[in-house]
Each structure stands twice: as structure tokens, then as C-alpha cells.
Amino acid sequence: MQTVTKQNSGGLRQWLTSNTPQSRFQARCGRAWLAWTKLTENHLAMIGLGIVLVLIILTIFAPVIAPYNPVAADLGNRIQPPSAAHWFGTDQLGRDILSRLIYGAQYTLMIVALVTITAAPVGLLIGTVAGYFGGWVDSVLMRITDIFLAFPKLILALAFVSALGPGLENAVLAIALTAWPPYARIARAETITVRKSDYIDAARLQGVSSSGLILGHIMPMCISSVVVRVTLDMAGMILIAAGLGFLGLGAQPPTPEWGAMVSEGRQFLLEQWWVSTVPGLAIFVVSLGFNLLGDGLRDVLDPRGGD
Amino acid sequence: MIEIENLNAWFGENHVLKDVSLKVAKNGSFGLVGESGSGKSTVLRTMTGLVDDWEGNIVVHGHELGPKRDKTFYRQVQMVFQDPFGSLHPRHTIDRILSEPVSVHKLGDSDRRVVKVLEQVGLNNSFRFRYPHQLSGGQRQRVAIARALILEPSVLLLDEPTSALDVSIQAEVLNLLAALRRDLGLTYIMVSHDLAVVAHVCDDIAIMNHGRIVERATASQLAQGSLEHPYSQQLYKAAGGYDRAVIDSFVDWD
Amino acid sequence: MRQDKLLSVKNLTVTFSTSKGPVNAVRGVSFDLGRERLGIVGESGSGKSQTGRAILGLTAANGSIAADEMQFHDVDLRNLSPRQWRKVRGARISMIMQDPKYSLNPVMTIGDQIIEAYREHHKVGTKEATHRAIEMLEAVKIRDPQRVFKSYPHEVSGGMGQRVMIAMMLIPDPELLIADEPTSALDVTVQLQVMAILDDLVRERGMALIFISHDLHLVSSFCDRVLVMYQGRVVEEIRASELDQAKHPYTQGLLNCLPKMDGNHNDLPVLQRQASWAEG
User: Fold this and answer.
1) Is some CB atom of chain B closer than 8 A to the CB atom of C143?
2) Is C222 on the interface with B (CB under 8 A)?
3) Residue B176 — pLDDT band, cuts 50, 70, 90?
């Protein structure tokens, strides 16, 4: 086959798309660039990425962006409808909902980030070890996973939080404890498909140890599926965190956590709908954003997508 | 150099190798020919420790192999797999694929070794940081051969090294293998379904069917077509191309 | 034999749009086909499979077909609607792919799949269709057709699976069969047996056959005429019996680089590719 037209050339672009990289660094960048161009072709994923970026920006610049103090009560200004001064209105203590929303972004992001860095590696490790060794190791690890999977997530998280005591940190811990089993399952399934492949056998014949095989050869093949699953699960994590907040077991007042905000507004839902609806919409939009991004990443990262 | 005596192997209930014996001299090349399910690849996989359930004696370099292979074994014996698309890790660069064995065996000097072995298999340095998907089939198989060579083994086990390649690329790889054996004094055991390929590379040939060696021949005997066992004769005739009369004489060996 | 022209292809070009720009997989291929066995030979990337797929309109979604002519009897194969394609594919032109494992439905018995293929194009009852299906399995030399009829694809061997595929593709009685590497996943002896069955059926039914393969030697011993493709172009067209007089250096090179059973271990001649071959 022949390439008919030539690529428009630019220094950096050529460096990235070069078929003959000169260093490890260039090879890695080239690969990332390829994934990025593929992701940019997916418009929905870009919308998702945009939402996630907005969330991150809000987290970093909350004090600059937010027009009011999120926790300072102004009882003379209670439950105001949306207006030019308060775009999303005020709540039962007269606090500006927009400002609370902006400050709340950091809690949502923190929950998602903490759960991800605890649950995903644990699931990945348990799954790859079970899949690689098989036999009784597999049976023991997978039965433990099954026990965790057997409980509804929210109920299990509720149980953990009640035992640990309410609070955002404990809520994160509880969600992490309930979130890892699916990752272990995915990692195990992925491991079993690659375990028998020639390149694993080849590495074994080079004298690579079991731990070297799992960490260096098998995990890289599982990571993309797990990453995709994690982004898809983030929506669920946000909802569970919001649910715990709603039940008063997550963030404690006056923390502007979105789930807690929905909960606090529920008594005014019929007459002053915005108090609950606006944070509810924020949860919805961010969940959707993570879902869209996850879907896009799946298309880019799926090892079966072919290179 | 290599002596295998009465090798038997099982996959679960399946008895896949039945009393296989063979001997290869230093710098010799031995070919195993057979159709799928004949057990030819299993001989190599048993030698390298990829098959657990086996019995018999395997002696390499005067050392009898036990149930486990240690690192020193892998420095002596390396294997090249059939499918160059499946035997290279899709997420590792060529550089990583080649330097990993060097660090596992703590040989040091990995940069120089990688460059040297790439040169040995006829790839220049521009390939070093590519990923396998940026290479053609023939180039990948060269990388797979380089990976086997980087530990400087004395024995190469070749499992259908060219059957996934185009014929013009096959010729290049076969020439490369011949040159390496000459220059590095390697010993080969090659497995293939293709009589002509084995006859070209190997001096001694054994034909396998259903886990058993049914006939042994030298390359010159094969050239004359003087095979005795009816199964080997059938394989020999099949290599001649499409001939209606010959095909009608085929017998099923199931 | 060749006087009644079945298929005429002129200046066929298949272009794929990829992230690296458009790629021409097939470039200006022309040939006529009568009731004969035509071989298309080439290495990977030569465009041989894409030529076969283009005739059946099976080019992948990111590819486009252009041709001055693609005439199959009275049907212009360019720009057929999906409904019109259904009347051609399977009924008048059939295709056998490389690996039967991926072409057969794993959760349907072999018999049901053959019956379905038959009833797609013939309005007959189940009984008649069953009868025809068993007959067809006998025709592809399956010794116990009743048993195979009731089996699922995973219960039969690769060679048997490919026979089943042939039975399925030939039961609607197509006029042209395109076989894309139909035997390269099989052992040599099984491969030849399957080809013999194909040969018989094509002869008995007066069908035309396009046999696509990478194996020049095998194709030339089997077909009447061979097209040799290189980088999307036909570099040589030659009668199979005259292969040893091939003129194009690529064809000669392909023949020479095969290892021979002559007992010598000398280096094989290596193909020296020339840029001019791709220019045509």
C-alpha cells in the first residue's frame, strides 16, 4: 500500500509522529500523541473532558471565582430566587448557592481522586495476582472479591461509615472499600487472556520472575481497561458520596458538599426548587462528564482496538 | 549437546508426546516436521519448561534438566516463537524488549548489547525506540531473534519462525538464521509444518505424527525423496503442490 | 471456455481514508473473467484480498471503490443499493474466507446454518431444505453428514469447518465463487483435499472461481490463469501452465526465493524490490 498524500509538516508534530523515534522519551510522547489525536476525534469525549477540566479549574481557583463566602450565613437574605446578585439564588441560611457550588467542586474531585488512588491499585493487584497464579490463590482472592460484590455498594458503604463515624474522609474510605472488587474482576479477566500469550511465555523464557511478569508485562495490559472502568465508575462514586452526604453520613455542615446541599434543600423542594435542584444538576453534569470521558477513553485505550 | 530420551508429555488426559528421542550435535541443526497436533511444538515447549506434566530425560550441555529451569538454563537455551505479532509485548518498545533480559541476568552494558544485537539481525539503530506495531512482520521476527540472541545462548529453539511471513521475507529470515548459526556456532532445533523449509535449514530431520516420531531422515535423503513411512511419503507428496491423482491417494491419519 | 464473459473489471481502485491520509490499497486493476479458475497472488499488502472484497462490495466503511467498469453479467456492481446487493451476494457471487471459525455462527448447528443459507434465496419447505443440506454435505465429502448436520461449529476440525463453509456458500448455486485464502489455516494435506473438493464442485456446476492466495506455487498448480499483484497493481498476468516463463522480475523473484528440497543449505536468493514495480 502507498500513502498518497504527504502529511503537513511542523517541527513538533513531525517529532511526535516520527516512525523512527530517537529516544525512549520521544517514543512515549509519540504514543501519547496518537492516543490524544484519537480522543480528540470523539466529540462527546471532548465534552466530557471539558466538564472534568472545568471541575479542576473550579477546585483550584474557587476563592478567586466564587463571588461570596460559601459558609457565611446572611439570615436577612434567606432562600432568595435566582437573581443578578445570586445567579442560583440563596439557601436557607442565606448563603450564595453558586459560591457553595464552586467550593463544593473540590470535595467532589477529592472523593473521586482519593477513591481512585486507593481502590484501583488494590483491585489491579488482586486481580492480576489471582489471574496469573490461578489455582488456590485465584480461588481465595476471588471468593473474597465475590463477598464484597455480593452487597449493594451503597448499603456496604453505609455500614462502613456508620462503623467508622460520619465524615468526608470516612466516606471516601467506605467508597474505596466497596469500589475495588470490579477492578479486581476486570484485571483478572484481562490477565487470563494475556497470560497464555506468546509474549508472556517469551518473557518467562528470558528468566523474568513472576513479580516482574505481573508488574512489567501483565499490568500494562490491564491498566487501560481498569482506567476506563474507573472513569465510568466515577459517576457512581460521586452519587454514592452524594447519597452519604444526603443521609448526613458524609460531609458535615457547613461543608458545601453537593450531596449534602441537595439534602439540606429538600424541605423547600416544592416552593424553592433551586436550593436542591442546582447542586443536583451539578452532580448530574459532572457524572455525565466522567461517563463521556470514560467512553471515549475506552475507544482509545482498549488493547483490542488494535494499533 | 542436546539429548532427549523417551520424552512423554501430557496435557491433562491427553498424551501428547510418546517416547520422543533425539540427539543434536554442537552446531548441528535438527528439524521436526509434522502437521498441527503432531506434538512438534510441544517438544520445544517441554524443553523450555513451559509444559509441566512430562517424563523422560533431557540433557543439555551435559546437564540433566529437572522439573524447574533456572536462569543459567535460559542463558544457554532461547526460543523464537511462530507469530511475530504475538510474541512481542505490544506496549514495550524494542529497546525495552531487548534490554530487559540483560537487566534480569545482570549482564550490564545494556546499551552496547542492544545496539550490537540489532546489528546482528540486520536492523539499524533507528528501530530501537519503536513499538512493535510500527514494524513489519519480517522486522518483528528479526527483533524476536535479537531478543533470543541477546543472552548469547548456544542453543536456539525455532518454533515455525517463518510460517507467518511472506515468502520473500521468509527467504531473508532463513538466510539470517543460517548466517547466525555459521557465525555464532549456534545449535538449532527447528519445528515446522513445511518440509522444504526444514530441509533447507536442517541436516537431520524427524517426521512426527500424533506425538510420535514416525521417521528420521537426513536432508539429502529428503532431497531424493527416499522416505519409507507412508505418512512421511504423503507429506512429501503434498509439498509438491496441487495434483489431483496424488490427493486422491491421501489417507487420513486421525 | 472463456468466450462467455462473466465478470469484467476495469481500472478498479480501492482507497482507504486513514489518519495518515488516503491509502490506495488497489490501484487500477483490470481483468476479465470467464467460466474459469483465476488465481490472484500477492504478498501481504498487495491488495489481493481488497480486490476480492471490492467485487462483493465488502470494502470496509472507511474505504471507497472507484472503477470504470464492474460488470457482472447484466448487473453493474458499482453503486448497488443494499437491497440489490442482497440479490447478488450469496445468490450469484459467494465468498469463502480464510478461517471458518470466524465465519460460522458458534451458537447455531451447522445444519441450521446451511438451511438458512439455502432458504435465503430459495422458497422451499424445511424438509426439502434439510434434504438439500445433507446432499451438499455429502458433496463436500463429509463422511457422516447426518452427524455433522447436527453438530456445532466448535465440534468439528478446521478442515471439516472449511468444507462446511464451502457447502454453505455453494448451496445457493452461485455463478462465481471468490475464495480468499480458503485453506491457508489448514494442514498441507487437508488443504489439498479441500481444494480438490472445491475443484470438483466448480467443474460440475460450471462455476467461475477466483482463488486468492499468497502461495504462487499452489495457485499455479490449481488455477488456469494467475494475476500477480504487487502494491495494489497487477504486475503480471500469466497462464498457470506457463509460470516458469514468467517475465516480471517480481514473479520470478517470488518463485526463486522459495526453499527447495534439494539438500543444499546455500543462501536463498532474496527479492530485490524495485520502486518501478509499484509504478506499473
Assistant:
1) no
2) yes
3) very high
Q: Which residue of A has its CA nearest to B49?
A: A205
Q: A27-30 long-range contacts, Cβ below 8 Å, gap at least 24? A: A27/B93, A27/B95, A27/B129, A27/B130, A27/B131
Domain-located, residue B12: no
CB C171 within 8 A of CB C118: yes
C19 exposure class (CB count in 10 Å sphere: 0-12, 13-18, 19+): exposed
Q: Mean pLDDT of all residues in chain B?
A: 90
**Complex ipTM tops 0.95:** no
A-chain residues within 8 Å CB-CB of B49? 204-205
B189, B112 contact by CB (below 8 A): no
* Residue B18 within any structural domain of the chain: no
Q: Please indicate, yes or no, if residue B5 is contained in any of the structural domains.
A: no
Q: What's the CATH number where B228 sits?
A: 3.40.50.300
CB pairs below 8 Å between B and C: how many?
104
What percent of chain C has a predicted confidence (pLDDT) above 70? 99
Model-level pTM greater than 0.95?
Answer: no
| pLDDT value, residue C5 | 83
C-alpha cell at C214: 499468497
Class of the CATH domain delimited by A42-66+86-305: mainly alpha
Spell out the alpha helix ranges (H) of chain C: 48-55, 82-88, 100-103, 110-121, 126-139, 145-150, 158-170, 188-205, 216-222, 249-256, 275-279
Q: Are B114 and B150 in contact (CB under 8 A)?
A: yes
Q: Is the pLDDT of residue C20 over 80?
A: no
A7 touches C at CB < 8 Å: yes
Domains of chain C: 7-92+176-278 (3.40.50.300), 102-173 (no CATH)
Task: Tell the residue number behind the cell numbers 536463498, with chain if given.
Answer: C268
Could you tell me which chain A residue has the CA closest to the CA of C26? Answer: A1
Q: Is C25 within 8 Å of chain A by CB?
A: yes
| pLDDT, tens digit (0-9, with 9 covering 90-100), for B111-137 | 899 999 999 999 988 888 888 888 888
Q: What pLDDT is attached to residue B2?
A: 92
pLDDT tens digits for A62-80? 888 888 888 877 788 777 8
**What per-residue confidence (pLDDT) applies to A305?**
44
Q: What is the pLDDT of residues A269-288, one digit of tens each?
A: 888 888 888 888 998 899 88
Least confident of A81-85, B2-6, B47-51, C173-177: A81-85
Q: Please tell me whether residue A109 adopts helix, strand or coil conformation.
A: helix
Cβ pair A199:B90 closer than 8 A: yes
Range of the domain at B192: 23-51+67-248
Q: What is the pLDDT of residue A4?
A: 41
Number of domains in chain B: 1
Nearest CB among B175, B239, B244 relative to C268 is that of B175
Q: Is residue B59 part of a domain?
A: no
- Count the neighbouring beta carbons within 10 Å of the beta carbon of residue B160: 20
**Are A2 and C23 a contacting pair at CB < 8 A?**
yes
User: Residue A222's closest CA among A114, A140, A138, A304?
Assistant: A304
Q: Mutation target for B interface from C143, C189, C262, C267: give the one with most B CBs within 10 A.
A: C189
Q: How far apart are CA C174 and CA C192, in angstroms?
A: 23
